[in-house]
Amino acid sequence: MNQTTPNIDEGSQVIVLGDIITDIIAQQAETLVRASDTRTNIAIRAGGSAGNLATWLATTGLTVHFIGRVGSDMFGSYHQQELQKFGVTPHLSFDPQLSTGSSVVLVESLTGERHMLTDRGANQNLDLDDVPWELFKAGNCFHLSGYSLQEAGTQRVALAVLDKARQENMRLSVDPSSTSLLNQVGPQRFLEWTRGADICFPNMDEGRLLTGETSPEGIVRFLVEWYGEVVLKLGGKGAIWARRNEPVVSVPAVPVQIVDSTGAGDAFCAGFLGEWLKGASPGQALQRGTRLGALVAGQAGARPTVAMTK
C-alpha cells in the first residue's frame, strides 16, 4: 500500500492562479446595533483565496509563482509588494479600467464567523496574455482556485491553463473555493472541468454540493472517482484524506480560540500541499494543514506575518 507521493523534483515550482483581494476586515467589538453605530475594529489586509494560499505555500520553502490581475491603483502595488515580501514571485497585470478587487469581511463578535461582501474588480479581466506560459512544464505543479471559474472571462483563462497543465503532465490541484460558485456554474460542470486533478480540496458544504452525499465518508468515496486524491476540510472536526482502494486517513482539528476564520481553509490547503509535494504521508500532510489552518483562525487576517517565515 503506497500512501506517499513522489518528492517534488529539485528546482520544481508551484504556480497558483486566482484572485487578489483587499480585505477590509470589520471585527465587531459588540453585538450588531441595527440602524445605529456598532463599535468595530477595522483593519485592511491583503487577501484573496489564491493569494492567501500562495503566501502560506511559500512559507513551506517551495518556489511559488502567482498569476493574477489588479487595478492600476495603490492597492495593486500594495499586493505586488505583499506577495514579494513572503517570497512569492508575482505575475500581476495592472488593469487600466477596473480597480483592485476588494471585500468587506464582517466578523461576528461571538463566533468569529465571517460574512463577505466582495467586488472582484480587476480579477474579472484576467486574460490569456497575462499568463507566463513558460512556467507550464513537466515537473512543476499548478494550483487552481475555483473562483477563477466563476465568470466567463476568467473561466476561459482558467480552462486554457488547466488544459496546458495537463498537456505538460504537471501535477495539478484544485480548490472548489465557494458554494456560490458551484451553485452558479453547476456541480457537474465543475467536476467535468477539473476531472483527473491529482488532488481536490473541498470543504463539507462544497463536498455536499458536488456529490449529493451528506457524510464525509460518502463525499470522499464519490470524489475519488473523479480525482487522484481528495482532502475534505471539516473545520472544527479536522480533515480527512482519501484515495481509491486505500483506507481513509483522518486527523482532528487543532484546538484554537477563533478570532477570524477568513483564510483558514487556504492556509490548510497550503500546509497540506507543501508536505504532499515533498513526499510526506497523508497523515503528516493533514497535520501540517490543520496546524496552519488553526494558526490563521486564531488571528485577524488571512496571511502569514513576516515573523512566521523566520
Into which percentage range does the β-strand content fall? 15-25%
Structural category? alpha/beta
Total count of domains: 1
Query: Which range best describes the helical content: under 10%, 10-25%, 25-40%, 40-55%, 55-70% or over 70%?
Result: 25-40%
Low-confidence stretches: none
Q: Tell me the major beta sheet.
A: 9 strands, mixed
Q: Quickly count the helices.
A: 9
List the helices and strands and how they pair.
Elements: E1 13-17, E2 21-28, E3 40-47, H1 49-58, E4 63-71, H2 74-85, E5 89-95, E6 102-107, E7 114-119, E8 141-145, H3 152-167, E9 171-175, H4 179-185, H5 187-194, E10 199-200, H6 204-211, H7 216-223, E11 229-233, E12 239-243, E13 249-251, H8 264-277, H9 282-297
Parallel strand pairs: 1-4, 1-8, 2-6, 4-5, 8-9, 9-10, 10-11
Antiparallel strand pairs: 2-3, 6-7, 11-12, 12-13
Quick rundown:
This protein is α/β, with parallel strands linked by helices and 310 residues long.
Structural account:
The strands form two sheets. This protein has a nine-stranded mixed β-sheet with strand order 5-4-1-8-9-10-11-12-13, with helices on both faces. A four-stranded mixed β-sheet has the order 3-2-6-7. A hairpin with a 5-residue loop joins β11 and β12. Helix content is 32%, strand content 24%. The chain contains nine helices and 13 strands. The protein is an alpha/beta fold. α6 crosses α7 and α8 packs antiparallel against α9. It has one domain: UDP-N-acetylmuramoyl-L-alanine:D-glutamate ligase. The longest helix is centred in the middle third of the chain and has 16 residues. The chain is globular.
